């Protein structure tokens, strides 16, 4: 997977750990862009990360705990996430007015609307909330039976994340290197890679003899 990092100095410790995960997945086809703003209704929205494979575009919201809490992480259909002992999960962006799922959905909608406009065709955008843990923290289970369609949650587990990406290869291709290259250029990050050929190689896009 090709890793593109916009403004490396601005990455948080959680984002730096995620960048390492991408570096540990060199055989996985795709392009991962970290720390980027996308246009949204005349303004911009900051995305922690977005991954393109030939099958999907995935907006990733990286969340970390501010204090160690152990036990099952419970994701209700509404309201803040909490632990199975009833305490609100001490996760950034998780309170009575916001929760990580609502944030990733908003980011997905903004990315979908913008990308569809740029390439001239409607495209689905999927969401993933990746929850990173503090050293020694134990959150062995996730209770999230009622989360929205086209969104997933992973509690820090590199093998689960790698499987999440690996299974995308079973779906029908939706994205081309030309489209991804066009979006990256419109975002102003084309300087992070040499040319469109790099994107095609990262996506493992088939070449057709002429």
Describe the 3D structure.
By secondary structure, the chain is of the alpha/beta class. Helices cover 28% and strands 24% of the residues. The chain contains 5 helices and 9 strands. The protein has a 6-stranded mixed sheet with strand order 1-2-3-4-7-9, sandwiched between helices. Strands 6-5-8 form a 3-stranded mixed sheet, with no helix packed on it. Helix 4 packs across helix 5 (196-203). The radius of gyration is 17 Å and the shape is globular. The mean pLDDT is 93.
Topology:
Blueprint: E1 2-5, H1 13-23, E2 31-40, E3 43-52, E4 57-64, E5 73-74, E6 82-83, H2 100-119, E7 126-132, E8 142-143, E9 151-155, H3 158-166, H4 177-187, H5 196-203
Parallel strand pairs: 1-2, 4-7, 5-8, 7-9
Antiparallel strand pairs: 2-3, 3-4, 5-6
Helix pairs in contact: 4-5
Q: Could you name the key traits of this structure?
A:
three-stranded mixed sheet, 5 helices, alpha/beta, 210 residues, 28% helix
Main sheet record: 6 strands, mixed
Oligomer: single chain
Please report the number of helical segments: 5
Distance between the termini: 27 Å
Low-confidence stretches: none
Proportion of residues in extended strands: 15-25%
* Total count of strands: 9
- Structural class comes to alpha/beta
Based on CA atoms alone, the radius of gyration comes out at 17 Å
SSE order: EHEEEEEHEEEHHH
Overall residue-averaged pLDDT value: 93
Shape: globular
Helix share bin: 25-40%
| Spatial order of strands in the largest sheet | 1-2-3-4-7-9
Outline:
With 210 residues, this protein is of the alpha/beta class. 28% of the residues lie in helices and 24% in strands.
